Prior knowledge:
Rossmann fold
Amino acid sequence: MAAQARPPRKALVTGAARGIGLAIARQLAQDGMQVLATDVDAQALAMAVSDLAQQGFAVAGEPLDVCSRAEVRALLHTHGPLDVVVNNAGIASRLLAFGDIAASELRRIFSVNVSGVFVVAQEAARQMKEGGRIVNIASRGYLGGAGASHYVASKAAVVGLTRAMAIELRWRGITVNAVAPGMVDTRMLDDFSAPMRRSLERREPSGSAADPQTIADAVAFLSSARAAQINGQVLLVDGGKSVGMPPL
C-alpha cells in the first residue's frame, strides 16, 4: 500500500499585506506551505492576496489586529493548529529624541511590536505540535541607535521574548528564533527624506537597502525542518553592518 502524502504544513504570517511580510508569505507558499496571511489593513491585504493568486500562489487572507486576543483566538479556532508562525506585524515612528517621546507613543509602539508578538505566539503555541516553528521579526535596531529609543526598546524586547520562549518551548519540540533585518526597502523608509535615505544607504555595506526577499529567505530556512537544531537565536540580516560601521 502506497504511503499517504503528508498534508502541507500550515503557516501564519502577520503584517503580510506588503513589504517583508508579503515576501515571507510568498516564499512560504512557494515552499509548499498552506499560508494564511493576515494584516490589520484589510483592503491592502485583499489586494496582496489577489496579486499572489495571479502569480499562482494559493495564499488565504484574513484581517487581524494582533493586539486583540479575541481576534487572535477566533482566527486560531478556525485555522489552527499551525505548524509555522511568523510574527512580522510591527510599526515604527518618525525619528524622535529620547526626551521628546511621549508616553502615548511608547505605548503605541509596544502594543504592536511587543504585545502583538506575545499574544499571537502565546495563543498559537497552545495548539502547536512537535516540530513547530515560531519566527519573530526583530530589527538590527535592537542593538541601539539615536532617535528611536522607543522602537529600539520594543525590538530588544522581541529578542528577549524570543530567547525566553525558546527555553520553555524546546521541551515540546518547538523552536523559536528571531530574524533581525537591517535597512530594508519597505514602507518604513517613507518617513525619511531623500537626502536622509541616501545618507543611510551610503552606510550600508551593499550601498542600498536590502530587498524584502532577503529577509523572506532567512525566515523560510528557520521555518523549515532543516533548522531543527537552531533555537533561541537572533539572525542578523544586515550585510554585516552589525559587525561594525564603515569609516566616515
